[in-house]
From TrEMBL:
One annotated GO molecular function: ligase activity
Entry keywords, A to Z: Ligase
InterPro entries: aa-tRNA-synth_II/BPL/LPL (IPR045864)
Species: Methylosinus trichosporium (strain ATCC 35070 / NCIMB 11131 / UNIQEM 75 / OB3b)
Gene3D superfamilies according to UniProt: Bira Bifunctional Protein, Domain 2
Protein name: Amino acid--[acyl-carrier-protein] ligase
Domain of life assignment: Bacteria
Length: 303
């Protein structure tokens, strides 16, 4: 095989599992890739189906005003993406066309719309829950999914800029939120073993921005608020987070005014599945030809 085709990403391009777009981290998905995504969805639904979560599917964009209120720009400005559109008259349009023709910057004629790119599948959920009023005595559980955006272009195929995230989100008392996360930490081991993926679970932190962010990340790790299921994809030394298990304490409850049946500020926890990363892990460890995968893995995905 030629030297240029040696990387995992290049092999996926050559096989048609993924398709280049000319932008790092932005790829088309082939039929085999989508078949695995569908299989993972079925397996995840099987594992969490008995919990009877309310299902909500979000588009890849969310309300800009709610995004601003979320505080995402305070913590992760380097990852955010906004949606802009042309906001000018005919003269401005002609100038825009001239700029495109000459190869100069043409986006100056655009203005921010009321939509931003969704950074995490659970972010549009909390305002919806808050508008419903106090929670029931047993809290609430949601099954959400969305295409998400993180601006971190990379040759590492596991660091896509646009990707699907599926989450189960628990909202309720501190005990309800904490026990939910512990339950999913146990399920995660079974999940990875069914897929026959090498893995381990470790404490982690979010990529908070700046000097203050380092302190926040340290505090998050010290309190063990975030765990990740790690699978080697690009390297064994730096395995990739394919699942996350987060206990937010009362952060989102306080931010959005979500209260329990007794009037206390609600706590939240979530388990997130990186659908593209899990799919990449399967191709990495079982090969690019799905027909050659272990029968037990194919059965787990009902392929």
């Amino acid at each position: 095989m030629c030297e240029a085709c040696d990387s995992f990403l290049d092999r996926m391009f050559a096989k048609g599992v993924l398709h280049e777009t000319g932008v790092d981290g932005l790829y088309g998905r082939g039929a085999a890739f989508e078949a695995i995504i569908d299989g993972l969805d079925r397996l995840i639904s099987h594992l969490g189906g008995g919990d009877k979560a309310e299902v909500i599917r979000f588009p890849p964009g969310m309300n800009r005003a709610l995004f601003e209120k979320s505080g995402y720009m305070k913590n992760f400005p380097q990852l955010a993406g906004t949606v802009h559109s042309f906001d000018g008259n005919e003269k401005d349009h002609m100038a825009l066309l001239d700029a495109i023709h000459s190869g100069s910057a043409w986006t100056k004629a655009q203005a921010a719309t009321d939509i931003v790119l969704t950074p995490a599948a659970c972010y549009p959920l909390y305002p919806i829950v808050a508008r419903r009023g106090p929670l029931a005595s047993d809290g609430a559980l949601f099954d959400v999914q969305s295409y998400c955006f993180r601006h971190e272009p990379s040759k590492d195929p596991a660091r896509m800029q646009m990707f699907r995230m599926r989450e189960f989100v628990r909202i309720g008392t501190p005990d309800q939120a904490a026990s939910f996360r512990e339950r999913w930490l146990e399920r995660a081991r079974d999940f990875a073993e069914r897929l026959e993926l090498p893995h381990h679970i470790d404490v982690a932190n979010d990529p908070f921005f700046g000097r203050a962010g380092k302190m926040m990340a340290s505090s998050q790790r010290d309190q063990a608020l975030k765990f990740e299921l790690l699978v080697p994809i690009e390297s064994v030394e730096k395995p990739t987070a394919c699942q996350s298990f987060n206990y937010h304490q009362d952060h989102f409850g306080s931010l959005w005014g979500i209260v329990t049946a007794s009037g206390e500020t609600a706590h939240t926890a979530c388990v997130g599945f990186g659908m593209e990363r899990l799919t990449l892990a399967l191709f990495k460890h079982h090969g690019l030809d799905i027909d050659g995968w272990p029968k037990s893995v194919r059965a787990a995905l009902t392929l």
